[in-house]
Design goal:
two-stranded antiparallel sheet; mainly beta; 10 strands; 209 residues; 1 helix
Length: 209
């Protein structure tokens, strides 16, 4: 089996984000999205520390706005809240072989935005856009399982199962349960809160020669 010394790698993941702690009290809906990671130097047995970047996105799903007076439901294209993240990742993997456990830490920023659109009783679409930015950071770990090796060029493919705990600085978020539309205007409230998520990820890692 190769040691994968100083090899660059690229990986793709499906992500499920679970709100925890204070943020869970604010919005407990699961988030779903994806993640792209590029490592300039991948961890290996002789050089266990790898450095790369992580670009990810997840959103917390559709929401339906209910009129408080007439109890009518309007379809709302509300993916509040959405999270676009960019992180620098440091990964420690002290072993090589067909199964490769690892630990990692990450630091970067998150752009959080909410786009809400409803249809009025006259079927006229009206929209609301709220956004903010925060520092974000976290820790995690996982296992990589070898799927195949190409002996001709030294590349290899791994299945990766990982978990991360993600935190942020304080950020202003839309309270989507507060959204009301009356007299041709949106009424809503925002909260300042710290983000806390447990992210579960499954993906594929491709190591270049």
């Amino acid at each position: 089996i190769q040691n994968l010394t100083a090899q660059p790698s690229v990986s793709f993941y499906f992500t499920t984000a679970i709100p925890v702690n204070e943020y869970e009290q604010f919005d407990d809906e699961l988030g779903y999205g994806g993640n792209l990671e590029i490592f300039f130097t991948s961890p290996s047995k002789p050089k266990p520390l790898g450095i790369g970047i992580s670009l990810s996105y997840f959103g917390q799903g559709l929401y339906f706005y209910e009129d408080p007076c007439y109890c009518e439901t309007y379809l709302s294209n509300n993916m509040a809240n959405n999270f676009a993240n960019a992180h620098l990742v440091f990964q420690l993997a002290p072993t090589g072989g067909t199964v490769r456990p690892y630990l990692e830490t990450l630091f970067g920023g998150s752009y959080i935005f909410s786009y809400s659109q409803i249809l009025t009783p006259a079927y006229v679409p009206v929209s609301l856009y709220i956004d903010d930015w925060a520092w974000s950071y976290g820790v995690g770990g996982g296992l990589k399982f070898l799927i195949g090796v190409d002996d001709s060029d030294g590349s290899s493919l791994y299945l990766d199962l990982k978990g991360r705990y993600l935190m942020s600085s304080d950020v202003t978020l839309l309270d989507r349960g507060s959204i009301r539309y009356a007299n041709n205007s949106f009424y809503y409230s925002v909260n300042e809160i710290q983000l806390n998520f447990v992210a579960l990820q499954i993906g594929m890692v491709f190591y270049f020669r």
